[in-house]
Each structure stands twice: as structure tokens, then as C-alpha cells.
Amino acid sequence: ACGKGGQWQLALVLLGQMPDMKLSPNEISYSAAISACEKGDQWPLALSLLVGMSSVHLVPDEISFNAAISACVRGLQWHLALVLLGQIVQLNIQPDEIINDAAISACERSGARWPWSIWQAI
């Protein structure tokens, strides 16, 4: 709900309070918070959450990466989006339509043509 409304501050508070409520954050709760940050134009926070998932023994999934890549694209951070696309490949995550669209956008807007050629080959 916070993600759809772009209420990234509330999403971060809820994520942070989960352990106090004896709830364990999971991939879904992290992805929702990352998505809320994306919609709130908070790409640094979205990336921080994505990276922070490993500290709670969670592995980002395609939804987590979708939201983080979209946050980077939305925040004009094309090269960071391309780095995340590379991580998707390393983790053997099957790209979906959203990731492919983000890859196209990041490659076009960064002016980098070679990453798109590599991405198409995957």
C-alpha cells in the first residue's frame, strides 16, 4: 500500500519496525519498500535497501531488482541501472518484461550501446 502511494517514509518505518513486532522482513517486504522509494524518487534509498537485504540473509529477487532498476532509471542513474542489470545476469535471475524495458531505457539514455547488445544476447 505504501508503495502504490509513494509513501516511502512510511514504508521504511514499517520495515524498520517489523523486528520489534516479532515479524521477519522478507523479500516481499523489502521489495515493497524499494518500490515505495522508487515511486518517491529516492533511488539512493532503494539501492541501500537492495544492498541491505544480504545483511538480513535475503537474496534479492526479480521484483526487488525491478524496483531498484526502475528507481535508478527514474533518478537518471543509467550507469547504476546497468550495474544492477549485470548483477541480475550473475545471479541467474530470469529477466521479465519490466527488467527488459528498464534495460532498454538505461542503455538508450546512457548512450551506451554495447550493454544492450550484450543484454539481447542473454
UniProtKB/TrEMBL annotation:
Keywords: Repeat
Keyword Metal-binding: no
InterPro entries given in the database record: PPR_rpt, TPR-like_helical_dom_sf
Keyword Glycoprotein attached: no
PANTHER family: PENTATRICOPEPTIDE REPEAT-CONTAINING PROTEIN GUN1, CHLOROPLASTIC, PPR_LONG DOMAIN-CONTAINING PROTEIN
Protein name in the entry: Pentatricopeptide repeat-containing protein, chloroplastic
Biological source species: Polarella glacialis
